[in-house]
Amino acid sequence: MAKDKYEKIDEAIDPQEQGRQPGLEEKMDPEPIYDDKDYKGADKLKGKTALITGGDSGIGRAVAVAFAKEGANVAIAYLDEHDDAEETVKAVESYGGKCIKLATDISQVENCNQLIVDVIGEFGELNILVNNAGKQFPQDDFLNISQDQLRETFETNIFSMFYLTQAAIPHLQKGDSIINTSSVTAYRGSPSLIDYSATKGAITAFTRSLASNLIDSGIRVNSVAPGPIWTPLIPATFDAEKVGEHGGDTPMERRGQPAELAPAYVYLAAKDSSYVTGETIHVNGGDFISS
């Protein structure tokens, strides 16, 4: 059987590492597939405005491009990866969408509040919030997880979701959507990513609880739980040997590409999922089968 485009790029990935977070997509070799050219938009998000955290690269970039194909305007929030962010802007604009990039640290509540102000000021509305940004710091020894690491992981991965969502809700209306990025580690755990997995478990509970809280408002809240995906977070987190092996232990025996996740976010943002809230879509190569 001929290998598909995703299997072929996985075979071409050599062991590599970056040693800094956030990672840079421009330094990855090969760069992730964020734009599936076979994916054709159908105006499912026409006239909508989306804010995507971690939108400069990886999953966030792929979602921004897919949203643009569906007619949405996009704001991307990121920390300091300016060149990556500019590439995302260009990609979104190539499909006719308007895109702004906003560099900020979303672990701080005042920055989250200002981020929503800036998006509303630019577009006049907000319809889709994608809480996607995250960090992870492996520690094989649980006792080596410091207070500073624990605080940074929780502030970036889950506190920011509370801050941004609280700031966004007054601007959301019936039919609008909140989509949170969880992880397969929330469901099967990870012995070397305990604090990260804990935040992802919190995100899953946050998604379910907030969905119930907002049910009467008509605002839907769902999540996507990726498995091993080829994003800057991988070479920024692990050593070269682990990067080379990344995703090889899944039933599909490969890592996924950001473009393979993006349609799940489109589905949850669009009217197609009007009867779906409090749910999680697992995109993980068979790495975890939920009950």
From TrEMBL:
Residues 1-11, 23-40 have a biased composition (Basic and acidic residues). Residues 1-40 are annotated as: Disordered. One of its GO terms (biological process) is bile acid metabolic process. Keywords: Oxidoreductase. Belongs to the short-chain dehydrogenases/reductases (SDR) family. GO terms for molecular function: oxidoreductase activity, acting on CH-OH group of donors. The keyword Oxidoreductase applies. SUPFAM superfamilies: NAD(P)-binding Rossmann-fold domains. This is NAD(P)-dependent oxidoreductase.
